[in-house]
User: Which sequence fits this backbone?
């Protein structure tokens, strides 16, 4: 069975949503991707939606929505996006913090940089899971 990975942050509107989309696209053979936060947003960050659509051809408005931690199934791996305030807590067998800056309100370049950063980290996570570098 594939491990379930949750990308979490407070609002579940930008970085965690980008990570869920990129995870589904690039690593669905290795793990299942979910995202959630401690507060619901009415909609996903539309700059993130646009950039993910441009870079990866995924329309997050159609495939994803803001979710709360309690909406998730039981999770094996938690990835915190990087929270300067207080990161949500979710029990899991493995947790890591990617420490990503929130690009909200910044330029497209920042969103693209964040997406590419997430892409690298998703690929790295998939490699670690595949090579049993993460104890589950």
Assistant:
């Amino acid at each position: 069975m594939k491990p379930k990975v949750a990308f979490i942050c407070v609002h579940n509107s930008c970085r965690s949503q980008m990570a869920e989309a990129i995870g589904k696209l690039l690593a669905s053979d290795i793990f299942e991707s979910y995202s959630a936060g401690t507060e619901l947003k009415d909609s996903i960050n539309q700059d993130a939606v646009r950039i993910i659509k441009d870079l990866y051809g995924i329309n997050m408005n159609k495939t994803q929505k803001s979710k709360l931690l309690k909406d998730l199934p039981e999770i094996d791996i938690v990835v915190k996006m990087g929270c300067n305030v207080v990161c949500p807590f979710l029990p899991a067998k493995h947790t890591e913090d990617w420490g990503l800056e929130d690009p909200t309100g910044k330029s497209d370049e920042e969103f693209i940089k964040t997406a590419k950063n997430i892409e690298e980290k998703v690929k790295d996570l998939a490699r670690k899971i595949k090579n049993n570098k993460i104890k589950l």
About this structure: The mean pLDDT is 94. The radius of gyration is 14 Å. The longest helix spans residues 108-130. The first strand starts at residue 4 and ends at 8.
